[in-house]
Amino acid sequence: MINIKLATRDYLDNLSGLIILFLQIFVSIFCVTLVLNQYQSDRKNYSAIKDAQAYNIVTFNSLNSSGSTHASNVTSNLNTIIRSYPSFTLYTDETIPGLNTYRLFGNLPQLVSTQFINQDNLLITSAHTNRLIINEAKSKHRIKDENIIFMDSILVPKKGSIDLKNTFLLKSNAHLETEILDSRITEELIHNLTVYNCSNEQISEISTLLSDEYSRFYPNFLNDDEFVLLMNTNNRLLLNFFIIVSIFVCINIFISLRNILNKKKREYYINRMFGLTKKDTSARLLVFIFFSCFIPCLISIYISTLFLGLNDSLFIEILTVSVLNIVLFLIFRNDLLKDDISSEMRSDYDKSY
């Protein structure tokens, strides 16, 4: 009990310094989480692109686009592309609030060799999606159980790797030319158009079908070695940046705690001279670090996830913070439990005056 009282007094005596430490921890962990999220996203995209290279995926970029709405014949031609060539596209379906849904047209390359090829009224999501959400989506879209496909993610080159947890791809039996599409949806469909396993002649035909008086389209080959190499280089740079930021975060926390504990070091030594055991001193230090560093780290991680979203690295962040606090405790404990207290007291006295 006395250890908690002493640790509480340590906390209150350094309240202003600990508030500054909390702000430093929050900003540092927020930046680390931001960088780590981006690295994980880029790594998933890179992995998905490497896997997709077997499909010879091609997208299309617009050249000299005026930004005007595409002519109606382009929508009809887009439907021709989807029905005549190995391809798919999608747009964000905002008609059903509360469900993160994309409406899919065409066939995903992963389904080409399955019984779902050319099948409509499909609902694609992750096996980790909440079952209640799946039932809600199945009911609203009138999908049978046998028409639900489970996939962890899909690659849409222009959007990256889409995590399908609590996200749905709806492939209906409607054709593009029968859909009432506004300019935003048309632009999104053309932007996300992805073809695969096509010959150079077919790719040229698709470019011609997409082009109109406003825009000219040219193919972008996902198998381009320079593109993949650039992504890999960016991932490595991001990883190095993450490591550097993490090291500075650890150094910053260590220096801040050391400065606070240096002010209390003389009191720790005096308490030991008057009978406070090493075990009591360790417990006092442990409680102090727990509330001044570990709890603020957890709060910072929680707040970061609220702003940046829950990510796969949450466990890694918590484990890293736990290890960091244990290391800090052992370092400061070794410093405060030195056997030669008198020399430390004299050294502290000489430095203070």
Automatic annotation (TrEMBL):
It is found in: Cell membrane. The chain crosses the membrane at residues 12-36, 237-261, 282-308, 314-332. The keyword Transmembrane applies. Its main location: membrane. It holds the Pfam family FtsX. This is ABC3 transporter permease C-terminal domain-containing protein. It is a multi-pass membrane protein. GO terms for cellular component: plasma membrane. Residues 241-327 form the ABC3 transporter permease C-terminal domain. Keywords: Cell membrane, Membrane, Transmembrane, Transmembrane helix.
